């Protein structure tokens, strides 16, 4: 989500205030940044590598164990910053779709022939790839004017370190989709500026989310892709609560310029892009 001008930036999960973004999920990287990680998250990658190295049958190539990126359509997700960070939220009257209302829908079009054989990599936006705030921040990467309650307000966007390299790398192995709980009027222009190489095949926004207990949930079964070939990278556990075995959790990012989580994650996803069933590798029991 975007932050309001009162604190630092928050994380993206299913909290929604004024602009429409989601909040908080945490993952530890294999090689950490100066920021401390909790033990549960820090063990995620090591456990995955142990599972991969000890189970060559799960991979076509025993030496490659990274999943690939997926594409996103046009639905907007709303992430809220942690309470200790300023937030921006592009809320609109429309609530997330009820799960029964979207159950028969396919969010993505048929797989493009050029992506044949690729798995789908679903990427969250706020606090996963970028952090946004109504409060001016430096060094800012983008300034997005957004209409809120009839008035134009600037949203200041910071790119997570390594995001450009990450998107380029994963797009070689995955059909990449950005799926955010933010509103499209904010997230679409952010993606226009972030995805300069146009490697993200689809964008999904809030209206593509399902309503589960009042929270915005990303129902991967509605994508129109085989679930054993879908990976979601998100900082909010609520976003993938229906499909935890398809998730690679990442920590919420706000402004740490020394963060290297995306750069650490890229090689992992590359290594597992050709596994037969991603859920065997990403099973939540490893957490």
From TrEMBL:
Instruction: Please provide the record's keywords in A-Z order.
Output: Hydrolase, Magnesium, Metal-binding, Protein phosphatase
Q: Which GO terms describe its molecular function?
A: metal ion binding; protein serine/threonine phosphatase activity
Q: Which SUPFAM superfamilies match?
A: HAD-like (SSF56784)
Which enzyme type, at the first EC level?
hydrolase
Q: What's the EC number here?
A: 3.1.3.16
Stored Pfam families:
NIF
Region (Disordered) residue ranges read 1-38, 57-87
Question: Bias regions of kind Polar residues — which residues?
Answer: 1-22, 67-77
Name of the protein this chain belongs to:
protein-serine/threonine phosphatase
Q: Which organism is it from?
A: Basidiobolus meristosporus CBS 931.73
